[in-house]
Specification:
It contains 4 helices and 7 strands; from the N terminus they run ααβββαββαββ. It is α+β, with helices and mostly antiparallel strands and about 180 residues long. The protein has a 7-stranded antiparallel β-sheet with strand order 1-2-7-3-4-5-6. The chain is globular, with a radius of gyration of 17 Å. The protein starts with 9 loop residues before the first helix and ends in a 12-residue tail after the last strand.
Length: about 180
């Protein structure tokens, strides 16, 4: 699979960099600010290795819940369960951060949106759909670390209403051991 990198416009990238820098440096915020930001911006902790080397287990990322989506973006989506009837109702956009934190989330790269092309290779679960558009209400996702990621390669399409939003920045530094000298 060809790896797609998120490449926002320079102006947008600069705006998010400033916003993320400010948010990362804040230690206390008023209740009103928390309520407003908690409905649009959510902090999510990365669990697992599916997005390595970009994101590592334990890192925190800021997720924008009302962003427009394009293939290549890193997104957060609700983790599927074996019996899909056990899903809670999708959290509404106006839901508070408390509602969002009660769910199980996965971080993945958005490969294709509804109406976009089904990937031609590298997605065995979608092999019979090659050349067709992604169905309405569905998305295609993949982790950057294909050897450990559970995503559309094995599970097929994901429900689009389970998408929380797009990752806009890392809030915690990567804490990885230094390579040995020698």
């Amino acid at each position: 699979m060809r790896r797609v990198h998120e490449a926002p416009a320079d102006g947008v990238r600069a705006q998010w960099a400033v916003a993320c820098g400010l948010l990362a440096s804040l230690t206390l915020a008023g209740a009103a600010l928390h309520t407003v930001l908690g409905r649009r911006l959510v902090v999510v902790t990365v669990r697992g290795e599916s997005m390595e080397p970009l994101y590592h287990d334990g890192e925190r990322v800021l997720v924008h819940r009302r962003s427009s989506l394009t293939p290549g973006q890193v997104v957060v989506v609700e983790k599927p369960v074996p019996d899909a009837t056990r899903f809670l109702a999708p959290p509404p956009l106006a839901a508070s951060s408390r509602v969002v934190t009660g769910r199980h989330w996965m971080i993945k790269r958005l490969v294709s949106l509804p109406g976009g092309p089904v990937p031609a290779t590298g997605f065995p679960a979608l092999a019979g759909q090659t050349g067709e558009p992604v169905p309405p209400g569905r998305i295609v996702l993949a982790g950057d670390n294909a050897t450990v990621s559970v995503d559309s390669r094995q599970l097929g399409f994901f429900p689009a209403d389970r998408l929380l939003g797009s990752v806009v920045c890392r809030l915690s530094p990567t804490a990885r051991p230094s390579p040995p000298e020698g």
